[in-house]
Every structure is written in C-alpha cells, then in structure tokens.
Design goal:
alpha/beta, 178 residues, seven-stranded mixed beta sheet, single chain
C-alpha cells in the first residue's frame, strides 16, 4: 500500500524530554504504549521526539509543570513520512484535522481519533515514523517513531535491527548511570 504522504530517508539530530521514571530507558516507548498518544493507539509503542529543544519541552509540559530531562538523539531512518508543509504546518486538511481532533476524549469514548487511522495507514505503507506539526509549539515539528532500534548497539545486534536507528547522544552515560 503506497503512502498518501511523501516518505523519505532522514538523518538528523532530535530532542526528547524524558519523564524521570523513564530516563534510565531513554529508547523505550513504554509510556506511549501504556497510555496511547496522539499518533499511536494504546498498545502500540511509539517515541515522540522533536526537531528542536523548545518544541520538545513544549510537547512534554503541555501546560503542566513537571520534572523531566532533555536529551539529544541521532536518527538514521530510511522511511519517514512527512505530514508537514516543511515549515511546521500541516501538509493538508486531513493532517490538520488529525492535529486538531480531541484525541484523548475520542479514545476515552472508544472512538479512534483520525490521527490513529492516519498512523496505521502510514505504518501499513512501511513508514518507520512521521514528521508531524507540533500541537504545543506553533511552527515546531515533531517526529513520532513506530519502528526503531538502538543505533548505538547497546545489547544484542551491535546497532543492527529493524526500523530506524536511534542513538541517545550521552557520551558520559549520565542518564544510564543516574
């Protein structure tokens, strides 16, 4: 099934705010898997990152002050769908609708939000993730990953695996030793 949006390789630095309880497992999508998110239904692991630190912080806080740790990552991906217009705005009306929908309320009523349907279409088309407009920082861009592995080779596979290669940039191992 072809993607309804442009899909391309992406190599870049990304940013993510980690909740304190997940900072020892910075490549985990467990929080999103347990709770769901705008771009993933409950049960599907996902990592939410941003293309700049300010957007990562805004997306994490969402108006609620709480402790967290800002961490940089390096991404090497082969198939990222781009749902933006290149300037942080929605690519089209379907993406805008997905970004503006009250996804939490819809999910609570067991009604899949449009962003989940769009995500499943992209995943079926082979997308490892998608660039999406930030809903918390106007003009900011986020990346949601659905398929990734540890690009640093921590553990089995020596940096090989399915999905996008994501590497935590932590040369002093500060997070893992906290």
């Amino acid at each position: 099934m072809p993607s309804p949006y442009p899909m391309r390789p992406l190599r870049t630095t990304l940013w993510r705010m980690l909740a304190i309880r997940y900072q020892r497992d910075p490549l985990s999508g467990e929080g999103a898997r347990l709770l769901g998110g705008r771009w993933n239904a409950r049960g599907r692991p996902a990592l939410y990152l941003a293309t700049d630190p300010a957007t990562a912080v805004a997306e994490f806080y969402q108006g609620l002050p709480k402790p967290g740790t800002l961490a940089p990552y390096r991404l090497e991906a082969g198939a990222i769908a781009d749902l933006t217009d290149g300037a942080g705005r929605p690519h089209d009306a379907s993406v805008e609708h997905a970004c503006n929908a009250a996804w939490k309320a819809m999910a609570a009523r067991a009604k899949p939000p449009p962003s989940w349907d769009l995500a499943e279409t992209l995943i079926a088309a082979g997308a490892q993730g998608a660039l999406v407009p930030s809903t918390q920082n106007h003009g900011g861009t986020c990346l949601v990953l659905w398929h990734w592995h540890d690009g640093a080779g921590e553990g089995a596979g020596e940096g090989q695996g399915e999905g996008a290669a994501l590497t935590l940039l932590d040369p002093e191992k500060s997070l893992l030793n906290a």
